[in-house]
Amino acid sequence: MRNEVRFLLGDEPVTLTGVDPTTTLLDWLRDQRRRTGTKEGCAEGDCGACTVAVGKPVDGGIEYEAVNACIRFLPTLDGTRVLTVEDLAKDGTLHPAQQAMVDCHGSQCGFCTPGFVMSLWVLHQDGPASPQRVDDALAGNLCRCTGYRPIADAAQKMAELPAPPRDETAALARLQAWADGQTLDVSANGQRFVAPTTLDEFCDLAAAHPDACILSGGTDVGLWVTKQLKRLGTVIYTGKVAGLDAITDAGDHLRIGAAVTYTQAQDALAALYPDMGELVRRIGGQQVRNMGTIGGNVANGSPIGDTPPALIAAGAGLELRLGRGVRVIPLERFFLDYRKQDRWPGEVVTAILLPKPAPGSLFRAYKVSKRFDQDISAVCGAFSIQLDGGVVRAARLAYGGMAGVPKRAANAEAVLVGRPWDEAAVRDAMAALAQDFTPMSDMRASAAYRAKVAANLLYRCWLETAAALPMRLTGREVAHA
């Protein structure tokens, strides 16, 4: 066990003891280190004003991601390198991300500028970017002044500027030396943070502390602290558990570890189910996708979580573990009622088991929200249709936002099975959705709107698969067409 949190702040080694486990990186940077370039805008991971870069050793180098400092708890940074806007300029010379913002007049009031610069800095590490990649990288940063065009221009401009030399030899050596495999265990102010390093230890801790808060990306838990001022008691962190962030090809299915982030999962999901990859691309901004996990989205049990409907439609299973005992259940059976899951005290989600699509099967997933980016679904629909000679042999229709849990439309499925995949069958299934759901009205949509959209999404699925539309453009692609 180790009770010191260790990370690099730029090139400075930082060692902290007695730190409150729910202190956010944002508060620590501003209050303790006076790094006021990192701003607080929303304190919930939406606006990007607090964006910093966090790096980990990967394949002999340091790989960086943009994250929201406002919902990132300080102990989760153990073994990483944190860069803020103050770290970028060297010897009076601006980094290309900064210089391009100056050259393109990308800043007006300046409040959001440091966050944009840090997102641009991470983007710069990968070289020139397409307009869509730029949009994706900046979608998690909000600006009230410029209208984004000059900032997008700066993203293209910075690739033309000479890159400053980067010597990370010393930083990498320090991070590698700190990788001791020890469990981090820190306590302060009546709260405890434990970061186990093996799956057995993680599961044993969870079983011994059934009331503990299981923390992965913190994109929801962080708001419990920043918005609800909630005290979490004992926190067990999944981010250091070896293998829990692995995606394994198991032949007929993918085994997706519970700590796999959206960013890590996106390409693997898209390779099997293109619509699932596109759905993940619209979860939050890049900062949220870099932190949030597939397992956390499932275990959280929100009826408007984006991944469960798609995973349910694909027939995914869920691996759960209590101590050393393992069980696997269909994912759809995990959700019992609003915020209530089939999970015993002390039991944890360890993996999602995603079947590979059957040959010739049809799969579509759609997210309907008020904004294309950075928004929560009003309705999310996902459909898997298996045909045999044009006749529906099996159908899995799953929705989020329509009930207290992500749920299959059993009556609509029954209407389709055994019938030709044609408009008559689909319209009958659309009508049957009224037997499956009684949606609610809230700030995102009325019940009538949800019911109409749910039916229309099924019709859209039929149009795209049976009517052979000549093309299908995402909202982002339409913007650039």
UniProtKB/TrEMBL annotation:
PROSITE patterns: 2FE2S_FER_1, 2FE2S_FER_2, FAD_PCMH. Keywords: FAD, Flavoprotein, Iron, Metal-binding, Oxidoreductase. Residues 186-359 form the FAD-binding PCMH-type domain. GO terms for molecular function: 2 iron, 2 sulfur cluster binding; FAD binding; iron ion binding; xanthine dehydrogenase activity. Signal peptide: none annotated. Its EC number is 1.17.1.4. Residues 3-88 form the 2Fe-2S ferredoxin-type domain. NCBIfam families: xanthine_xdhA. PANTHER family: XANTHINE DEHYDROGENASE. This is Xanthine dehydrogenase small subunit. The gene is xdhA.
